[in-house]
Amino acid sequence: MDLRKLEPAGLKRTREQDVSPRDIRWLVQVDVERSALEERWGAPEIAHDDFAEWFCFAFSSAEGEAFILLLQVDHPVAGFVLSVTKGLFSPEAAERIVQALDIPGARITRTNAEATL
Which DSSP string do the residues of 54-102 spell out, in sequence order? Predict the structure, then answer.
């Protein structure tokens, strides 16, 4: 995927259930306020899994790659978990995703070590 094409105009919100959990992997933790995401991208969905209930913002790119930002509803920690499809699993893609979110002050605070190998 050409990461230069990953920009706000090329992103679209998608339903969380349209992204298969088997197709995504945790990539980074992003320090961004939920209210800032809501102001820019609209209200989150609420997703459920065996572990928790999550605020969820799911996106897809023009190339068909997808990513999801998740924050636990009952026990929010600082920042959202960013999980991505295979074509976006790299530190460079994570940086580009944070830029494409178009939210001032959003930044990566932790990266999956597997992404740097």
Answer: EEEEEEEETTS-EEEEEEESSS--SSEEEEEEGGG-SHHHHHHHHHHTT
As beta bridge partners, residue 25 has 84
Integer Cα distance of 93 and 84 in angstroms: 9
Quote the CA–CA distance of 51 and 111 in Å, as a whole number.
22
- Alpha-carbon distance of 22 to 69, in angstroms, equals 16
User: What is the C-alpha to C-alpha distance for residues 44 and 99, in angstroms, rounded to an integer?
Assistant: 19
29-71 pLDDT, tens digit per residue, is: 999 999 999 999 999 999 988 888 999 999 988 778 899 999 9
Q: What's this model's pTM, rounded to 2 decimal places?
A: 0.88
- pLDDT interval class at 8 (50, 70, 90): low
* Cβ contact 6:82 at 8 Å: no
How far is 12 from 22, CA to CA, in rounded Å?
A: 21
